[in-house]
Specification:
The chain is built from 3 helices and 6 strands, in the order αβαββαβββ. The protein is α/β, with parallel strands linked by helices and 123 residues long. The mean pLDDT is 92.
Length: 123
């Protein structure tokens, strides 16, 4: 849904799904509605280095930390929105990539997201 909203707003959207069944269903729906969203069945922690660097990233699962692999794929001046923390203590953050790969982080309150999990799932 979020990918479709971003596409409707004119964004070039790349999205990762780690659950195979959800990936296949989402791919079918996106094709049926003629969205030009690049959807990948992969591990969100790895990002999409082939298509990097990215201007912006929205992470829609809570990571226990901001993954360095994703920071590396953000261009200088790029912005990442990511919920960070464990269950019950997740904080929404924006992180702007500065010189030498340093992140300038701001917190935006407590939230609750599903956890970001490594690897792919055939569930």
């Amino acid at each position: 849904y979020q990918a479709c909203i971003l596409a409707e707003m004119g964004a070039k959207v790349f999205s990762i799904e780690r659950h195979r069944k959800l990936y296949l269903k989402a791919k079918e729906i996106l094709q049926n509605f003629n969205y030009r969203i690049k959807l990948f069945y992969s591990d969100g922690y790895k990002g999409l280095p082939t298509f990097a660097p990215f201007d912006k990233m929205i992470i829609t699962a809570a990571a226990p930390y901001i993954p360095q692999t994703l920071t590396d794929q953000l261009k200088e001046g790029g912005i990442m929105v990511v919920p960070v923390g464990e269950a019950g203590t997740q904080v929404m953050k924006t992180a702007v990539k500065r010189q030498e790969g340093n992140l300038e982080e701001k917190e935006h309150g407590l939230f609750k997201f599903v956890p970001m999990l490594p690897d792919k799932s055939d569930d």
